[in-house]
Amino acid sequence: MKQDNILEIFSDLGIRATTPRILIYEYIKLQSDTFSLGDIENALPDTDKSTIFRTLILFEEHHLIHSMEDGSGAMKYCLCRNQGECEEEEFHCHFYCEKCKKTYCLDNQASTNITLPKGFIMNHINFIIKGICDKCSHKTDI
Amino acid sequence: MKQDNILEIFSDLGIRATTPRILIYEYIKLQSDTFSLGDIENALPDTDKSTIFRTLILFEEHHLIHSMEDGSGAMKYCLCRNQGECEEEEFHCHFYCEKCKKTYCLDNQASTNITLPKGFIMNHINFIIKGICDKCSHKTDI
DNA sequence: TTTCTTTTGCAACCAGGTTGCAGAAGCGTA
DNA sequence: TACGCTTCTGCAACCTGGTTGCAAAAGAAA
Ligand SMILES: [Mn+2]
Ligand SMILES: [Mn+2]
Ligand SMILES: [Zn+2]
Ligand SMILES: [Zn+2]
């Protein structure tokens, strides 16, 4: 595991390696932070939106990517750093910059200590911190 | 402050007390957890969606309510327990039940310890825990 | 090749949110 | 009470992102 070859990653997971899937995965691998379906649409104008949509669902089912709601209106995704072998604890937090609209993965910068009320069962976490990112906070405003 | 009379709450904040605003605020006061624009639409079929929409914006600007994205597709709102005087620290967490689709306010059940990377400035938090609520977890499945 | 299964592209649809605008309502003043 | 100005409402239209049904294309198997 921890493959680098796309074809092997797909075949390990039993995913058929089609042209759109390879293009989409190649795009995803280049992203250091999060991306949306619309970002992929722009990057791959010859691939249909619905194909991208279904591919993202497929990738998420196989834990190749994670998804999150950052309040921007569009679902955001990020590459799973553990290629389908992420553990339950990988509930990492994200930062949404209200100025440049970029969403960053914060891997270990935020710790949470959760005690749920009796009877509540946690499956996922969607933890978004909103504010101004480092690049935008350095700029002088006006 | 900590008023109970709707008309006084509005006049304290300089909000004109119109019929739709009173109806909407009365609805909101009855809710123990979160609600959406669509919930209000259903409860008040004679009030237009855009009026409800603009009223929610107004209420949030005056900190009468908080809003959050719970991933359900619809923005959720909850009554501010401090009537417009909530402090920055009131970043409470919410729980979304994936079975009954209800979103609960978790006031003190989850603590977070956040250390952002250098240069990042936090303004808000959108912290949603997803899973199964107590009512739904007690039910025998099938 | 033929046949069967999976995947794709297109077009249409949907939900929730958002906007421009004309008329209604509210309010201060005469 | 009537007038003039400002704010608010309802309606209809629009927008964006997401979702679906379906026929054609591509892939795998025989
Ligand atoms: Mn992961
Ligand atoms: Mn509050
Ligand atoms: Zn930024
Ligand atoms: Zn539930």
Secondary structural class of chain A:
alpha+beta
List the quaternary state of the chains: homodimer
Query: What portion of residues of chain A belong to β-strands?
Result: 25-35%
Number of structural domains of chain A: 1
Query: How would you write the strand order of the largest sheet of chain A?
Result: 1-3-2
Judging by the overall fold, what is the CATH architecture of chain A? Answer: Orthogonal Bundle
Order of helices and strands of chain A: HHEHHEEEEEEH
How would you describe what is shown here?
The structure is a homodimer of 142-residue chains. The mean pLDDT of chain A is 88. In chain A, a hairpin with a 5-residue loop joins strand 4 and strand 5 (103-106). The first copy, chain A, contains five helices and seven strands, in the order ααβααββββββα. In chain A, helix 3 crosses helix 4 (49-61). With 142 residues, chain A is α+β, with helices and mostly antiparallel strands. The longest helix of chain A has 13 residues, at 49-61. Chains A and B meet through strand 6, strand 7 and helix 5 of A and strand 6, strand 7 and helix 5 of B. Bound molecules: manganese (II) ion (2 copies) and zinc ion (2 copies). The structure holds a DNA duplex (30 and 30 nucleotides).
